[in-house]
Write a structure and sequence with these properties.
elongated; alpha/beta; 401 residues; six-stranded mixed β-sheet; four-stranded antiparallel β-sheet
Length: 401
């Protein structure tokens, strides 16, 4: 696609130094989750966007945990929604510098959240600023929903999709790090806690008790059998749903029959699957295998659920994103489109708002996110901002009724 002179002027107006400055300020604001709140990060973002002339709305999801919703342009027609999050994982050890004092080194911004995803937030804001200053916002409305608690239980996105939306959205771009590869689908995730209760007894007479660890082992075997069935029915794009047993704790001593065992499990969900359905199926398998009963009681809880999504590669959002990235001159390693092995807030938008969704952003989620000396290339931040502005311009919006 040929970039018009007007669009090129818009893209050229994006201020790289402004992106670096905002990214650094967001990093410096912290927001470890768990361990802190996102309040300082939200304040930095809100203040910057107010100064730029955006409409700014603050929604406190929990004490000190505000969602920040910033918009430009008319609310009388559907716009494009960008989604990001203000929290970061704990810094941990192994850093060669203060993780919450951003620095620029060898063309990269270093600091916790540089890649995941303070840089992505700054790139979206830069794109919105360029569109607003060019006087094009009413024709091409844009919103950034910067949400809390993405790295843990998803309080922010759940609140966002549950509240009546003051604007409507035609498409959604989640600005998570993808190295500017357009992600058109990802599996969802559910964390389950399986609580197995038995009856304690002296190990010299184990038949006087009922061993919860042994019962848990049988349940794990049932999960492995279920995985074999899932492997036989993969999604053509996303592959199969998967199980992973993450932790197992139980018993109080070697010479005692274990009266309790708790197993935590990660279950990756295909679009259309729900954690409740998965739990019901597992309960049925447990009942059929005769694990529950005769002194064994099994409870299964859902501690987290995040839906997946799949947007057709034929959707205009996917092709527009791919072309927009190409037109920035960005270097894309490998495929221009792909699916994601991680999960993100985009599944909630696709499932509950019915909005076609992709994930597209600066940074390497596997090579940089959640690691010491996390960083992102400055040039990729600029390229991302240019791609976001181009997508907003090209995806268009239907005329107001």
């Amino acid at each position: 696609m040929t970039v018009s002179n007007d669009e090129q002027a818009l893209l050229d107006s994006i201020d790289g130094q402004d992106i670096v400055s905002l990214t650094a300020a967001l990093i410096d604001a912290g927001g470890e989750n768990p361990g802190d709140t996102e309040e300082k990060t939200a304040q930095v973002l809100a203040d910057h966007c107010r100064a730029a002339g955006f409409d700014v709305r603050i929604v406190e999801v929990a004490p000190g945990r505000p969602n920040v919703i910033v918009s430009i342009g008319s609310d009388e027609r559907p716009g494009i929604l960008f989604v990001g999050h203000s929290d970061v994982v704990p810094a941990g050890s192994g850093w060669t510098a203060d993780p919450f004092s951003a620095l620029v080194r060898d063309g990269r911004i270093v600091g916790r959240g540089a890649c995941d995803m303070k840089g992505g937030l700054a790139a979206v804001v830069a794109a919105m600023t360029a569109v607003l200053r060019a006087g094009l916002a009413d024709e091409h409305p844009m919103t950034l929903a910067c949400l809390v608690d993405e790295e843990d239980t998803g309080l922010g996105i759940r609140a966002f999709v549950a509240e009546p939306a003051p604007r409507s959205y035609s498409h959604c771009v989640v600005a998570e790090p993808t190295n500017l590869v357009t992600i058109f689908g990802c599996r969802g995730a559910a964390n389950l806690e399986i609580d197995v209760r038995g009856r304690s007894a002296h190990a010299g007479q184990p038949r006087n008790g009922v061993n919860a660890i042994s019962a848990a082992a049988r349940i794990i075997a049932l999960i492995e059998d279920s995985q074999s069935e899932l492997d036989a029915h993969p999604d053509p794009d996303l592959g199969p749903a998967t199980w992973n047993v993450g932790t197992i704790t139980g018993g109080t001593g070697t010479s005692m029959v274990a009266d309790r065992c708790v197993v935590t499990v990660d279950r990756r969900l295909l679009p259309g699957e729900s954690a409740a359905e998965v739990v019901q199926d597992l309960r049925s398998r447990i009942e059929s295998a005769g694990v529950n009963g005769s002194g064994i009681d099994v409870e299964i809880g859902i501690s987290m659920e995040m839906p997946g999504f799949l947007t057709s590669v034929q959707d205009g959002l996917v092709s527009t994103a791919v072309q927009s990235v190409r037109d920035t001159g960005s270097e894309i390693l490998g495929r221009s489109t792909d699916i994601w092995t991680a999960s993100c807030d985009g599944g909630f938008v696709a499932q509950q708002m019915g909005t076609p969704t992709i994930v597209l952003g600066p940074g390497d989620i596997e090579g940089q996110a959640h690691r010491p000396d996390e960083s992102v290339a400055v040039q990729q931040l600029i390229d991302s901002a240019r791609a976001y502005a181009s997508i907003a311009m090209r995806i268009g919006a239907p005329p107001a009724p």
